Amino acid sequence: MDDPFPLLAELRHVAPVVRARLHDRWNVWLVTSYQAARHVLLDTRTFRSDHSWIAAADAKHVSPMRMGLLDWDPPLHTEARRLVRPAFAPPAVRDFADQVRRRCPPLLEALPPTGTADLVAEVIEPLVNTAVGTFLGVPWNEALGRGAAALIAPVDDDTAREHAARARDALAAHVDACLSESSGQHTSLLARILTEGGPGNPESRLPRGQLVLQMFVAGRQSTVDFLATLIRGLTGTGTLARLRDPGAPIASTVEEYLRHDGPIVRGVWRFAARDGHIAGTPVARGDTVLVSLAAANRDPAVFDRPDQVAPQRRPHPHLAFGAGPHHCPGAPLVRAMAGTLVTELARRFPRMSLAPQRDHCPTGSVFRGPRAVRVRPGGENTAA
Q: Using CA atoms, how far apart are residues 344 and 127, in angstroms rounded to an integer?
């Protein structure tokens, strides 16, 4: 996980889909090429999200974090997407971006003008925790954070799985309580939607606790990891200072880092509901398929010089947010947060440089990102 890309490239060279064994006990199909990844993500009749299609001996290995939109198929998935769509529409995203812009300055102003600071602990995590918690209507607290960490830990034995399952159930109940206690008084659009138009309706089958919890766990951690990777990359290469100029390609730079070093490495789970094929390889009903977004996003058949960061790259059909019906609904929020943070850092600390630190460390069984980004702000805060 520190640097998975050489191995992923080697596997892609072998075949667009290869047989792999997880935790020395679970055989899966690992998809390594861009076109094969798109095929699996778009063929929702063959490759489903609900793992009830696979054998019980394999299903017990599936992470308890698979819930909500990640683990639902139509009609439940369709109902959930339709219900929450207004919370991710352009007006709501603009409101979210405005809130992020208001929260950034106090965090950045608190950075020391000399010496070093950890941007993950002092800026990125507080920003994401507050913004995501406010958006979902579930205020951040340390207990919630500890439970979320349990859900992304590797499920490599029965004890770990039981621990994660207990954390999932407790957190889902906590989320339900948060949404119910303030019913009718939510400032969060998503919370109002789920309280007034969703699970409160007796005809709705949506378990809102699972829905919001999955958004919180997956959305929060992947965003923290991506922002840490993005800022570390821009600072380490001296690119951050250049993004201070008017008209700087901030949006395309964010897209390129999503492609080049996104937070999801090992992949997106799918389960074969019927016999099929992936790039000519037969896949049987009940098989487990793992789509490596990191491998697909560095496929040289699609991206020229894929191991290089090219902010001006066009077009940019990366799969960092997936594809098809399960394309991540939170993608506009991640882009808004990344663009705002890069803009503010470039404006205030154009001389910021990296301090000595370790390379990437995994934060769980799927996500990848630096646990710390130690920087020297540069001795000058240039904000007015």
A: 13
Segment holding 291, helix H or strand E:
strand 288-291
For 56, 171, 182, 214, the CA distances from 195, given in Å and listed in that order, are 34, 17, 9, 17
323 or 52, which is more confident: 323
Residue located via tokens 């209507």: 137
Reduce the secondary structure of 161-228 to three states and give it as a string. Answer: HHHHHHHHHHHHHHHHHHHHHCCCCCCCHHHHHHHHCCCCCCCCCCCHHHHHHHHHHHHHHHHHHHHH
Q: What are the CA-CA distances from residue 367 to residues 45, 50, 265, 295, 315 (Å)?
A: 27, 21, 6, 14, 26
CA distance 232 to 230: 5
Length of the chain: 384
Q: What angle do CA 326, 329, 333 make, to 5 degrees?
A: 150
6 by Cβ neighbours in 10 Å (0-12 / 13-18 / 19+) ranks as exposed
What stretches of the chain show up as alpha helix (H) in DSSP?
5-14, 34-42, 56-59, 76-84, 90-109, 119, 125-136, 142-152, 158-181, 189-196, 208-236, 239-242, 250-261, 293-296, 331-348
Average pLDDT of the chain, as a whole number = 86
Rounded Cα distance between 104 and 211, Å, is 28
User: Would you tell me the crossing angle of helices 208-236 and 189-196 to the nearest 10 degrees?
Assistant: 160
- Note the pLDDT of residue 161: 78
Tokens of 240: 């951050």
CA distance 39 to 285: 16
For the stretch 93-112, pLDDT in tens is 999 999 999 999 999 999 98
Q: How would residue 361 be classed by pLDDT, with cut points 50, 70 and 90?
A: low
How far is 165 from 148, CA to CA, in rounded Å?
Answer: 11
Rounded CA separation 193/80 (Å):
11
CA 36 – CA 277 distance, rounded (Å) = 10
Identity at 274, one-letter amino acid code: R
Amino acid letter, 351: R
Q: Position of tokens 């997880």?
A: 22
